[in-house]
Fold:
Amino acid sequence: MARVSYLERPVYGASEVDALLGLSSGTARRWIDGYERRGRHYAPVVREETTGDDLVTWGEFVETSLLANYRDSGVPMLRMRPVVERLRQRLGIRYPLATVRPYVDEALHLVYEVQQEARLEESMRLVVEAQSGQYVLASPARAFRSTAEFEDVDSENIVARLRPLGLKREVVIDPSRRSGAPVVRAVPTDVLAELIRSGEPIEWVARQYELTVTQVLDAWEFEREQVA
Structure:
């Protein structure tokens, strides 16, 4: 049996992606696999074509995480599809937004050029031109980059895990830990949050799981943001 690459590893159902990223119900499925409306088919943004598969790979989750930063742009997400397609072709990789290449300085000009070709609205851009004339990541892409941990896997520098509160914080989403559930060390954040909601002191929770108070507080903050 052929080995499944890290980015192609099935991790979530589409509804789980909605919950993890704070998207309204059905959004992840539409972005990842496309949808039908009034007899018209709308192609997916993340996948190359509609498959009907509810399982979401790690690469698809990572790309959807980036797109979620643009959810309030006011521009239909489908406008991003030509950019993703062109980056796939130019970089020769299936999940361009889940690898380091679009985010490093030497590739920013390529992303900018692709956006220009696709006539992408400014509010959806991954890369913008600064007053200095240099290309820099747009604010939503920069916010995503600040949560992504890259690692050399399968001969490619990819997003191996996400730290949704920031790279120096304790909450980790990693497909190799607890089936991709958000954790602090090895403890699911929802387990810690449930104890706090039931009235247990944070210091007690930390002792029970051999965690620091800071780790428990990060888990609590993440879970509160999930329901905000």
The chain has a mean pLDDT of 94. The CA atoms of residues 79 and 120 lie 7 Å apart. The chain is about 40% helix and 15% strand.
